[in-house]
Amino acid sequence: MAAEQKVARLATESNTTQATAQATDTARETLQAGASQAAKASEGVLRSAEDAMEFGRGNLEAITQAAQTYFAGAQDLGRQTLALMQQLQEEAMQNARSLATVRSIKDATEMQTSFGRQTMEKLLSETSRLQEASFRLAEQSTAPIAQRMTLAMERMSRTSPSA
């Protein structure tokens, strides 16, 4: 009976050794798979963070470009408005000198009416031109931000799950 016990004990030890080896192999494979998945996940997170930083940098550049365009355009519009006011003032002074030389009230009335009409026509025309320039400036200065918003919407639609 001692031989049978020895054989049974050897069989048990052999099964235990094999089971231990299999368990060790399975644990190693599981750990390696987990480490590989963790590495892939961390690469994805790092890539996403880099993408987000790059996108934020692009947004800041767009805002800077929009502000520069706006301020340069606003200065130009201011100069144009000032030039118009100076021109109107010079014309008013010239017409005042002309009025000083008239000999009758009828001539003065006609001259003043003509001056008023010319001034109004010029003022309306120049105001329309300045208004159009203001609209163009608004479009130009908001264009970089609108482009970034479009890009953001495109990126969101690519990354969002389909319905």
Distance between the termini: 72 Å
Over the alpha carbons, how many angstroms does the gyration radius reach? 42 Å
Assembly state here?
single chain
Average pLDDT: 86
Number of domains: 1
Profile the largest sheet: none
The count of DSSP E runs of length 2 or more, i.e. the number of strands, is 0
* Shape assignment: rod-shaped
> Helix coverage percent of residues?
over 70%
Give start-end ranges of low-pLDDT stretches. Answer: none
Along the chain, the helix and strand elements come as HH
Percent strand? under 5%
**Number of separate helices:** 2
What structural class do helix, strand and pairing data support?
A: mainly alpha
InterPro entries: Phasin (IPR018968), Phasin_subfam-1 (IPR010127)
Protein name: Phasin family protein
Organism: Roseomonas elaeocarpi
Pfam families: Phasin_2 (PF09361)
How would you describe the overall organization of this protein?
The radius of gyration is 42 Å and the shape is rod-shaped. It has helices at residues 2-99, 105-159. It is mostly helical. It has two helices and no strands. The protein starts with a helix and ends with a helix. Residues 1-42 are annotated as: Disordered. It holds the Pfam family Phasin_2. Residues 50-149 form the Phasin domain. Residues 11-25 have a biased composition (Low complexity).
